[in-house]
Amino acid sequence: MSKKFDVVVIGAGPAGYVAAIRAAQLGMDVACIDKWLDLNDKPSLGGTCLNAGCIPSKALLESSELYDRANSEFADHGIKTSGVELDLGQMQKRKAGVVSQLTGGIGSLFKANGVTSFAGSGQVVDSGEVLFVGHDGKEETFTTENIIIAAGSEPVELDIAKFDGDRIVDSWGALELDEVPKKLGVIGAGYIGVELGSVWSRLGSEVTLLEAVDDFMPIADRDVAKEGLKAFKKQGLDIQLGARVTATKVNKQSVKVDYTQGDESKSATFDRLIVAVGRRPHTKDLCAKGARVELDDKGFVDVNDSFRTSLPGVYAVGDVIGNPMLAHKGMEEGVAVAEILAGQKPHLNYDVIPSVVYTHPEMAWVGKSEAQVKSAGTDYRVGQVPFAANGRAKALGQQGGFIKMIADANTDEILGVHMIGPYVSELVQEMVVAMEYKASSEDIARIIHGHPTLGETVHETALAVDGRPIHFPPKRGKK
Q1: Which of the residues are catalytic?
Q2: How far apart are CA 358 and CA 258, in angstroms?
Q3: Do the Cβ atoms of 192 and 169 come closer than 8 Å?
Q4: Among candidates 175, 148, 150, 172, which has minimal Cα distance to 282?
């Protein structure tokens, strides 16, 4: 006998669990199916983000940064340390504890909101019908008014560098290493590659990142990317641009990587190799052969502006519908589709989705880069102020980096803000709010910011757009 629900959500990552909770809050009877198994083969909610991505990586980034600072910075603060030792086992244990608390928290939220959770896989059979297969192999059919696909994404695997879970690992495997590799290779120098490389570099690895494109982090504003590249190289990361991997060979204790750089053929040998060249939508076997859910040529689910797929009553959100493949974007889509099902009219502004790279220094931005504004033919002004001019940054001993603001020269509306420096993952949120409400640089310049705070650099940058910063020599950036 089949079970009946108002909504069945496939996937309990950020997009899926949020959609399930919001739909339940709106009075719907909701089931959420998720197939994730942790390293002990136990069901674990939260998808890649909580289990093998956003959360565990940030936990290790924090631990590795503290270890690095204890070795290199504490003495400057008058803190004498001796015999600082790395306990990687404890570091991994702490990370696992953080993950466990948050994944378990989703289960508690499901219970509190009345969401029924099922551990196993879900497949769209047709409108209103989902096949559920538990981890024990038992099958059930769920009937429902609406289906929300939120199956997430998975790491891209290269034919020339197949994951073996030992010498060649994906991003999850890179977070679970039980020893610090002497030499670590990373294919890909995007968000994931740089963050993972940073973790192991701080813990003592000689890290080489092989990036196929010729520009470092092309998604970022060029000034921020240039500053980041300089900072990461200074920290010891060996970032090789225009390095196209052609082959790998796994030996007993190492991995040999062949690559080309310009007209030269090169090779390098590493103890471990991380492949971090991006993610692809997890849509394989998601729909039965007869289900008319259309995918694009890259495997993403096609949806309209209301997240509807080609199959009536079936919606999709998060990584499965395409870029940007960010957890916070997926969460808001999950809320939006639940509200659409309830007859509401939610609003999502894809032009002001923040991006953050959790390195040291952090990188963050929202809106258009200077190159994009210039390409659009818009007349604009730029303000840029370094953290070296900020008292709080100096007190923290983290005065590297800057904030750059781009505003329309005619209307003064803020078009983009780009940051690299201490805690910019938090500072960028002010600009997300400002840009959502079409703020001008003058609006930010007129708002009193607390002193001494890092946020004062946002204020100074807004002043700099008009050529009148107070705590930094004026340099009007009119273009």
Answers
A1: 451
A2: 29
A3: no
A4: 150
